[in-house]
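Recall the central idea of this unit: under ordinary conditions, the amino acid sequence of a chain determines the structure it adopts. In this exercise we apply that idea directly, starting from the sequence alone.
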Amino acid sequence: MTQKTPSAETVGSIFEYLFQSPDISMWTISWPPDAFCFAATALQRSSAYTALVGAGKPQLDFKHAEEDREDALEMIGKKWRFAAGKDKLPPPIVRKWLELVRSNRALPLTALGTRKRVLAALINILAAADEACAGLGISLTSADDDEFTRIAESQLFPREDGSTLCKRIHPSKARVLPKCHTAQTGLTIRSFSHFLALVGTTEIRPQWYSFCAETSDHALNLLLVPWPTRIIPKQFRATETHRMTDDVDRGAYGMFTFDAIGPARFDAIRRLVGAAEKTVGRIDGVFIPELALTPKSVEQISKAVLREDRFLIAGVGQPAQEGVSGENYIRFDVMLPGGEYCAALRQEKHHRWKLDKNQIMQYGIGSILNPQADWWEHIDVNDRCLMLVTLKPWLTACVLVCEDLARPDPLAGC
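Accordingly, the structure predicted from this sequence is:
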């Protein structure tokens, strides 16, 4: 039996993988986020973008009425944005770059860094598509946005597979999201764009929500509510054990849960907000720690503190029972402009809390949980999403529970 020799990834195979079509056509790639996704994916997988730094880099300048490349790309991006909003083809110069890429579709990715004209074409496509998408992800409510913005923002709205700006590329393969900050250190594919980011991971589903309206605010005042005021050992308890008796066998572990004692009182929190406003002025956001609230109490507190100009971020939980997982999630409540509708967003915790010997002894719960074993929080972690919420034209926020910050997390790819 003759063994087939594995074939190398090529520029064309990347396109076919993303678009499910072997033909690199103008119409297929006419939507700027789709074009960005293709160019960024080819550049990232080949690592050819590193050839743009140092000696021997390709010539990125091109003939244009605007002699400065940055000004030219901004103008091309605006024209492409207008054309995409009317469902028309990109500007001629973009089509020229794409035709060069198309004629080199058999080029192996491993050789892309040495083919300077093709590399320059892909970088310019990426940059022009990036300029075409300036300002996306800021607001779903602006009345004066152009047609392209309205289409793109509706495309971005969360769906079952998460958020993406792409039209013809399924998010299980790659997705494109807005961004407003370019890292100033290091070198990755994200170093080459201002307004768009390539997201290759499928482990975390990003969910993008745009709630902000125009504002002159330049800062936020946040209130961190110190609740609960105390934690006692008996709030921790075991729910399940594996290979544990009085001795702890190799590979043994336990599951634990945390019982809240007394719900937070919404009248007390409301008084706390009032006292804070007397000290610092307006309060823009109220934060309540992990597992501080029950599903019932978070509804009461949300009604008490939420306003059109104030959001709530709260940790909510339900204790586990034997054989039944508990809950540990974030509630991110935002009042939409106009004050008629509240968006109550929910994000599950990504990682179980692991209590080891040092923590068990530190918290004084060694009589409850055997310190010779590792204890894992009894929750499910099969729904991993990341909420990105635009609160101001200059601020898009995402929230993590402390354990999600302490563990290696796939959301680093988002």
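The CA atoms of residues 55 and 114 lie 12 Å apart.
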